[in-house]
């Protein structure tokens, strides 16, 4: 699936720089004023040399115009974002989704809807690609956090592993039945495919680490590390997401942390294509302060 967050900022979205606008308008005024003086020597117009005075009426008008132009550029940026899949939010994203034949599920987040739109586009091809099944599985309920589609061999058998937001990640029997009905629909399933919907296998990862803070860092930094790690795994993890030691150290190293000595897990925790990591115990020991 295309990761929209990796795309560069579109050129249509302009950088907002008030000082640059003031400078440009001041230079434009000086150029025009010089031309007017040259064209009307008999008027004995003065040379403009008070641009550094904040009380100069010309500078006040220039600053007002620059502020107005800044607002117009910001509005244009907002309008551009509202029409781009990677940036649209709320009802703007709903309108973008409608262009792709997708509607928001009850309680569905912008992130989840955005991912389903991409899947809908990528899945519209012959022979039932993985994205096609993933789109229809994820369209059943907003509680579905992640879906993985994979072949179990060389034959027509394939499995769809499902991870949910609630229930500790395990889908209910009723939800699995709903997903099965959706992907087994003749309008969805390729004629030769044999599809089975299963819960994603959860692998518990216990974490232990020694933490040093910078001398000036408040203890609140240390106290928030466990919750921050859980939030990071919920946001970044999913089926097939490997919990590498380097990832754990980086997520335990927000501003204010000087050093992290990770003691568990001993090795990277590698997930297969139907497993998802679940955070187990998190044991963090405050070791003091250092630079």
UniProtKB/TrEMBL annotation:
Domain of life according to the entry: Bacteria
Region forming the signal peptide: none
Chain ranges of the Baseplate J-like central domain: 125-199
Lineage: Bacteria, Pseudomonadati, Pseudomonadota, Alphaproteobacteria, Hyphomicrobiales
Name used for this protein in its record: Baseplate J protein
PANTHER family: FELS-2 PROPHAGE PROTEIN
Source organism (scientific name): Neorhizobium galegae (Rhizobium galegae)
Alphabetized InterPro entries for the sequence: Baseplate_assembly_J_pred, Baseplate_J_M, Phage_Baseplate_Hub
């Amino acid at each position: 699936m295309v990761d929209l967050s990796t795309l560069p900022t579109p050129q249509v979205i302009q950088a907002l720089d008030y000082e640059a606008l003031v400078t440009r308008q001041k230079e434009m005024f000086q150029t025009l004023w010089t031309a007017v003086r040259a064209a009307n020597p008999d008027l004995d117009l003065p040379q403009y040399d008070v641009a550094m005075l904040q009380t100069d009426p010309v500078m006040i008008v220039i600053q007002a115009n620059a502020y107005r132009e800044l607002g117009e550029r910001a509005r244009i940026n907002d309008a551009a974002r509202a029409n781009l899949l990677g940036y649209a939010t709320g009802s703007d994203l709903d309108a973008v989704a409608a262009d792709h034949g997708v509607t928001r599920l009850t309680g569905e987040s912008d992130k989840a809807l955005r991912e389903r739109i991409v899947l809908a586009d990528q899945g519209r091809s012959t022979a039932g690609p993985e994205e096609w099944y993933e789109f229809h599985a994820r369209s059943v309920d907003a509680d579905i956090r992640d879906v993985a589609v994979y072949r179990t061999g060389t034959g027509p058998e394939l499995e769809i592993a499902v991870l949910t937001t609630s229930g500790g990640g395990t889908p209910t029997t009723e939800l699995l039945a709903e997903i099965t009905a959706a992907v087994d629909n003749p309008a969805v399933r390729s004629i030769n495919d044999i599809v089975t919907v299963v819960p994603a296998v959860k692998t518990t990862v216990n974490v232990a680490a020694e933490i040093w803070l910078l001398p000036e860092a408040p203890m609140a930094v240390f106290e928030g590390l466990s919750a921050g790690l859980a939030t990071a795994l919920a946001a970044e993890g999913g089926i097939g997401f490997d919990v590498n030691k380097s990832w754990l150290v980086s997520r335990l190293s927000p501003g204010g942390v000087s050093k992290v000595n990770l003691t568990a897990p001993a090795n990277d925790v590698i997930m297969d294509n139907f497993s998802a990591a679940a955070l187990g115990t998190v044991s963090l020991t405050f070791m003091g302060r250092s630079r």
